[in-house]
Design a protein that fits this description.
CATH topology of the largest domain: D-Maltodextrin-Binding Protein, domain 2
CATH superfamily of the largest domain: Periplasmic binding protein-like II
CATH architecture of the largest domain: 3-Layer(aba) Sandwich
Shape: globular
Number of domains: 2
Structural class: alpha/beta
Number of helices: 13
Radius of gyration: 18 Å
Length: 303
């Protein structure tokens, strides 16, 4: 079996990586290999090139029309998990969205849709308030952790939208500070519910190999429990994939996120994410909870 995540050097989907690296999939009797994300991970999932995808549902299920054929097995953690960091020398208070007026903000494609929608929800008009969303400098490696940080250092942007590790790398380097941490309540309240990191697979796998689907959920839940009990395990899980500086922060990132390590997916969560996906043009039509979520495995979400 093969598993990939939307961003490998990131705490956002780290539970899925740790489930492999710490041996929790193996303990459930399945051999899962981690692979760096292909150019179109959703299509790879649909085609069977990969078996599991860790990421936002609207990214992982994009290749499935109306999200039919794709299934969410469980949540890797809860709530929208991105941060907005801006240059450290910009005077502002944490949580003040108006601080972005007149700034250039960098963001990668899919997360950038969330940032744009968040700014609009907060009353920011990009044209009126002279807020420009700019691309980050191109990278040739699969390590996207420095996206945004590079953009500030090279004078391309004044701030960036990204995962917690990316935000903290900028803080550690002294060039950035965190303006918004959406998961913990900064920004418009609705934004907290727009997405969450999930483990996705296909209806075909769940139907044809239900024991493997169940084993995958148990592996994720056991990993969540292990990291909650000992966040330092994250260092062991990261050491083969993360460069040294990024690995030095991962235990802190995981310790901060463990209160949100819950595999549960509720009907309300699906209603929020599907409505948001329609708003940004990533989904057409309605999505039924029982069709999108492997509810037959719900009893495994808690132990």
């Amino acid at each position: 079996m093969r598993l990939t995540v939307a961003d490998a050097i990131s705490p956002s989907y780290f539970v899925a990586i740790a489930a492999i690296q710490l041996g929790f999939f193996r303990r459930e009797g399945i051999d899962v290999e981690f692979v760096f994300s292909p150019p179109n991970p959703s299509q790879a999932l649909k085609d069977g090139t990969i078996d599991f995808f860790g990421g936002s549902p609207f990214t992982g299920l994009r290749a499935f029309p109306g999200w039919r054929g794709g299934v969410l097995l469980c949540a890797l953690s809860q709530y929208t998990y991105w941060f907005l960091a801006i240059r450290a020398d910009i005077p502002c208070e944490r949580g003040d969205v108006n601080a972005v007026k007149g700034l250039r903000l960098s963001a990668s494609a899919d997360p950038g849709l969330t940032m744009k929608r968040l700014l609009e929800e907060a009353g920011i008009d990009l044209r009126r308030d002279n807020v420009r969303i700019v691309p980050s400098p191109q990278r040739t490696s699969p390590n996207w952790a420095w996206d945004g940080v590079d953009a500030i250092e090279q004078g391309v942007s004044d701030g960036y939208w990204g995962n917690g590790l990316r935000a903290d790398l900028g803080v550690k380097r002294g060039i950035a500070k965190i303006l918004l941490d959406v998961r913990r309540g900064d920004g418009p309240p609705a934004a907290r519910h727009w997405t969450f990191p999930a483990l996705a697979t296909t209806e075909r796998l769940v139907r044809e190999q239900p024991a493997i689907a169940a084993a995958a959920v148990r592996a994720i839940v056991n990993t969540q429990h292990a990291l909650r009990a000992d966040p330092q395990l994250a260092v062991k899980a990261a050491e083969r994939l993360f460069p040294a500086e990024e690995a030095s922060l991962i235990a802190y990132e995981v310790a901060r996120d463990t209160p949100f390590y819950d595999a549960t997916i509720t009907e309300e969560m699906v209603a929020h994410i599907s409505r948001f996906a329609r708003d940004i043009g990533a989904l057409e039509g309605e999505v039924r909870y029982g069709e999108l979520v492997a509810t037959q495995l719900a009893s495994l979400w808690s132990r």
